[in-house]
Amino acid sequence: MIVAQRKSIPELVDILKGRKKILLLGCGTCVTVCLAGGEREVSINASALRIASRLKNLDFEIEELTIERQCDNIFIEKAADAIKRNDVVLSLGCGAGVQAIAERYDKPVYAGLDTEFIGILEERATWTEKCIACGKCVLHEYGGICPITRCAKHMLNGPCSGSTEERCEVRADRPCAWQLIYRRLKSIGELDRLKSVKSPKDWSAGIGGGSRVIIREDHRV
Amino acid sequence: MSNENFEPRLIAFCCQYCSYSAADLAGSMRLQYPPNVRIVRTPCTGRLEVEFFMKAFERGADGILVAGCLEGGCHFTEGNLLAKGRVGYTRKFLSESGLEAERIRMINISAAGARPFVDYINEMLATLKTLGPSPLKRVGPSTNAENRI
Ligand code: SF4
Ligand code: SF4
Predict the structure, then answer these.
(1) Domain total for chain A?
(2) Of the ligands numbered here, which is closest to the C-alpha atom of A166?
(3) Taking the complete model, does pTM exceed 0.95, yes or no?
(4) Residue A134 CB–ligand 1 contact under 6 Å
(5) Domain of A55: which CATH number?
(6) Are A72 and A66 spatial neighbours (Cβ–Cβ below 8 Å)?
(7) What span, in angstroms and rounded, lies between the C-alpha atoms of A94 and B118?
(8) What is the CATH code for B10-138?
(9) ipTM of predicted complex
């Protein structure tokens, strides 16, 4: 899922200054699960913004709404009336959601969250990054552990030999991805995979080649 | 409003398994505490959400006490620990939006803790008297925006 984090109230106030009728729009999918932009966070942020507005005389009028998904037309339509009766939208969706709304309505749409990464809930209240969407997945080579995302140096032929006690030398709070890859390949009997030297990655399949589009002709009518 | 004449409006969310009974016991023991506190019974402090606290402040509470069981003694195992985290999170939002973080506090007492309950209430009221009325009261009533919820 997409993992995002909240922006602070002073940041949001700064973004919204001078605006009056504000729709605080939550998203019921990824950002709900990562506790950043669901119905609950919409309510908390709305209260905090109303308090800040009253104390700073900002005159915000905030309407709250959360739709199932901000990145999907069918659900976005459900917000149409609310979007129309407000001056601006502060979206608590991920970057894709914010842009999906902005492209469909002639209103300012602001990002209320910082979108961080594609990841998983590792343990209670802890999310970790797992994939940077490189466009050409090589997980099968590495025992299901992505060196591009999880090795700080994105090494396809690791390790870098800098790790200490299985911790990455760049980020000591994270495990060395190559240590994990080695262990994993060993445990599934695929250590052989490390014998071949992997050729440089073609980054043009990823964001390096420009913003991507996928068209499924078989599903077009 | 000068702080001496100020009578804080304190909301105490009390877990029915501990502090609510403690409050009851305080009554049976005829322990006095100021009438400024409004007690709200909750099945567990884990039922309380950050948005409840924010709404209470928005609507004019000067302070909130969240009174749960002793740590390790929650009837639902960890409700009071969840509440502790939520109170901490609320504090962040309060200070970011311009209210003092000290206006909300988590306390832990057992059902037998009538005396500590009264002491905590008095302590919290003293804190609120020092802080003064919620700054939201100074700026007058809320806009009708929140009624659009
Ligand atoms: S190899 Fe690419 S697609 Fe596969 S997990 Fe890593 S970043 Fe994601
Ligand atoms: S220590 Fe491990 S994870 Fe960190 S950069 Fe080196 S190989 Fe990559």
Answers:
(1) 2
(2) 2
(3) no
(4) yes
(5) 3.40.50.20
(6) no
(7) 46
(8) 3.40.50
(9) 0.92
